[in-house]
Amino acid sequence: MAKLSGIGTISGFLKSLETYPGHVALEVEDHFMTYSQLFSIVGKLGNLIIKTDSSQDNLVGILAYRSLCTYSGILSTLAAGKGYVPLNPKFPVKRLISILKFSNSNIIIVGKEFYPVINEVLTQISYPVSVVIPDVCRNEYELAFMNRHCYFFKNDIENETSDIQFREIDLRKPAYVLFTSGTTGVPKGIPISHFNLASYIKFICDKYDFNQNDRCSQAFDTTFDPSVHDMFITWNVGAALISVPEKELIAPASFIISKKITVWYSVPSIAMFMMRMRILKPGIFKNLRYSIFSGEALSIDLVELWMKAAPDSKVVNYYGPTEVTINITDYVWEHEKLSYNGIVSIGKVFNNHNYRIVDENLHPVPVGEIGELIISGDQVCYGYINNPDKNKECFVNIENRTYYKTGDLVKEHPDRNILYLGRLDHQVKIRGYRVELGEIEQSVKNFTNANAIAIAYPVQNNVAEGIVIFIEHSEYMDESAIRDHCSKSLPEYMIPKKYIFVNNFPLSINGKIDRKKLIEIITEYESS
Amino acid sequence: MNPLENTIASFLIEKSRGKCQKLGVEENIDENFSFTGSGVFDSMDFIDLISQVEKKFNIEIDFSDYEPNDFSTIKGFAHCAVLTII
Question: Minimal Cα distance from A474: which residue of B?
């Protein structure tokens, strides 16, 4: 049986600290820190956290963004044997408060990026919180203190020793908790345990030759779980983590080159931006060994252009819902070229996990047939926080194993590589007919050669009245010709009622296509 | 600034003012306005703006020789746009 107690996720960083104390662990905001320099901060902050609350039960909120405070705050929390809850300054204050309350975070670490909103947040938290502000001294703090909260500053941290006493902790407790929007408006908390994360780190580090000479990008916001891959895979192998400033994310080519990045990991959209800006020129990324993408569909066109820009790089397409710890399938483009409708395969489920592709009655479908991917194994979280209904819906027991129902429609190739087809919840019913929105999108894509997103609209009581199709194209397109094509390729009830042309699809803060914003556009369109 | 650069800058100012108005944000938009960090433009808006400039002026802007700092302001964007077509 796997070990269920130990010092947890911090162990990989400590191993690298021992082996490579002088190696660069982190480059952020034009500064770099070696493993030993970073650890001296982590030890002090970790000791302050333990003094404040030594229990493993309460979580630590990280209100910091792409700064030293962000990374040292996360590491210190884990060094103290606790779990962290990342927050994002791009979230509305209401959402920040809701997450802090829901997660019962009684310690929060606040970076300068959150100073503009911190008082508004603290005013609305009625229970006492320990507020740790590592970047300023007590006498430099210009905001109002609130009596019910307890404040700690840079000078309080500096008074601590960096010699931290690591404790045996329960590895089934969360290393981090991420929140996604729930259907009822209450955030859905996904706790990923030290045990889940250890399984992921071991699998990835055993399979890929990331090493101490690598310089790995950190492009994801910490509220999106690939950031956990960035940090803990990098620190597990003794490599350098290079934080990408937000202003570079629009076109990080010169950043990748000047920082000599060897492992790049982002959503495909960032590569797409560079493609549109005509930046992806052959041979520009000479140092890249790995180019990793996840979070949305990866098109062959983009991969082929990227491969020319980074000729010595392996392109890896990862897939994984947050509930199964970052990624659960991988596909290395270098070896095979499997795709479906121009989209790269998501590859095989990690071989230390069980999976099935099932129909709506949870019966396996024949190979090659479409079904929902369900997954069981060490990376699967134990369930949403305080959400029994959702747990019952999403976690099912089959032959004494707990499977997470991903809600993703896939089909399996005979060689066991998986092709991603879309979300189960993009399946809608129109006049009793079951409609797969992906099929409509594909039909329009085939005709226009442009990206298309189909939205069921309006939807009342789970019944869609029609389809609106968004087409990503800046030039004039003949709507009637597209409609004519659809009428020839789709059943009548699947033909879109409205055609809206946009220069670019709106993206969520995680870089995925923002369907809610598309619905807002339809509403505006209707009222104009 | 050469005349085309001025025209592109004016176009960008107009578009940026329109975006602010739509969002209900009060911003003093001039040629020093920065697209990044303003909270007005996200990455997709920026790409959208590039498409609009390319379409309006019938040019293809190649940003490969520039760093984000070079084209993050209206003035910088217009300058890079003109240099790529000269």
Answer: B51
